[in-house]
Amino acid sequence: MPMRYFDLADDVYLPKRWELGHPLGANGHPLEDPWQFRVGARAQLTDRIQLPVKTSGTPLDFSHAAFSIPVVHVRVASLLAEMAPHDVDIIPAGIQGQPDQFCILNATRLVQCIDDKASGEVRYWRPEDGRPEKTGQYRAVYQMRIDPSKVGDAKIFRTWGWTIALIVSEEIKKALERIEATGTKFKQV
């Protein structure tokens, strides 16, 4: 049976949940490049990161800060670092008013595996869109499906060309369910 993979997302419909804001550097200013956590590569950081709480509520084991940056409780970070050490950077991050430790989960693998034909709809940037630097790249991917034969040994990764998606193996999904990690939502891809 082929390996199954899932898009791991923040369950934004949980009631009374917190919402995290724009990551800040040690100087209290917004990070210059918050997108670096969404490109499937190691982050280039020199400062400890602070995450403000934008909306107070129940802290979650998995949630997104601004820019869809994955933030995990240290128990989730430890589990993922143990199960997929070559796939993630675990970056400590302080959260205002939180005694527990949290981390940014940075997927460091980028895998070219989107199955355009099996996906619901795939759109590409075209010359007439007026963004020549993006021509030929994904503009939108709906009901994404991947080709598992192209994933190799990756257990946590971003999809090449559509790095919005954070993909985990079924093994990772089951481990997160086993520890009852809050805030997670999975959709098979």
Would you mind describing this structure in some detail?
- It comes from Stigmatella erecta.
- InterPro entries: Imm11 (IPR012433).
- By secondary structure, this protein is mainly beta.
- It has a domain at 10-110 and 170-188.
- Helices cover 10% and strands 34% of the residues.
- The protein has two helices and 14 strands.
- The strands form four sheets. It has a five-stranded mixed β-sheet with strand order 9-12-13-1-14.
Number of helices: 2
Q: How much β-strand is present in the residues?
A: 25-35%
| Helicity level | 10-25%
Uncertain regions spanning at least 5 consecutive residues: none
Tell me about the largest β-sheet: 5 strands, mixed
Mean of all residue-level pLDDT scores: 94
What Rg, in angstroms, do the CA atoms define?
Answer: 17 Å
Spell out the helices and strands N to C: EEEEEEHEEEEEEEHE
Question: Which structural class is indicated by helix and strand composition?
Answer: mainly beta
Task: Give the spatial strand order of the biggest sheet.
Answer: 9-12-13-1-14
The rounded distance between the terminal residues' Cα atoms is 15 Å
Q: What is the number of E strands? A: 14
Shape: globular
